[in-house]
Structure formats: structure tokens, C-alpha cells
What does this fold into?
Amino acid sequence: MKHTHTSGKRKEAIARATIKKGSGKVRINKKLLETIKPEPIRLKIKEPLMLASKLGSKIDVDVTVIGGGQTSQADAARLAIARGMVEFSKDKKIEKTFLSYDRNMLVADVRRKEVNKPNRSKARAKRQKSYR
It folds into this structure.
């Protein structure tokens, strides 16, 4: 039985997706995708499945997401699902569709929070001089 494991990251969120042949079930952290609220988050996760609708109805997707906030988790899950679909199908047409729709479906956003500097409370702000 053929199945594919992929992962996606966004900020602090990490998603691991397992894709195998099936009937189109999508589960995020053991919950069906249809039960996930709010709706914009659900639609963001559904995007790769809607773009490749033929393949989307022939596979089952299990995603485990940890860390980060709601939106970051949705972006990480979307990235893992899209990468998994491309790897599972080995179809260049699907890959081109994803890249032309949104490059972040297959390419991770590498931006991270800037670390706080020593002896200061903020990452960017300079220490104010006090001569008086």
C-alpha cells in the first residue's frame, strides 16, 4: 500500500501529513476537516484539495499539527498537504497549479521572530541614552 509522509512549517507550527489511497477523508489532529472552526481556517487548509479535486477525492489525509497559533497551524497543514499531494501523485501539472496559485503552498515561509537582544527588552529598539 502506497503512502507518503511530508511535513510543513510556519512560524512555530509544525505539521506532519500522511497521505494514502482512500475516499477523500481529511483529518487534522484526529478531527474531520469539516468540524474545524473558524471557516477561513478550514478553507485555507482545503485549498490544495480543491485545486487538485480529482486527486483530492481519491486520497485520505491525516495531519498532526503542533505549536504556533491557529493561522500558523493552518498554513503549516496546507503546506504539508500540498507537498504530500505532489509527492504522492508525482504529477508536474499539480505542482505547476499549486505554484501558480500560491508559491507558499509548496515553498515554506522561512521568516521567524527576531530574537531579543541582551540587556534590552525588545528585538529592534535601541537603548536610549540618558546623560542627565
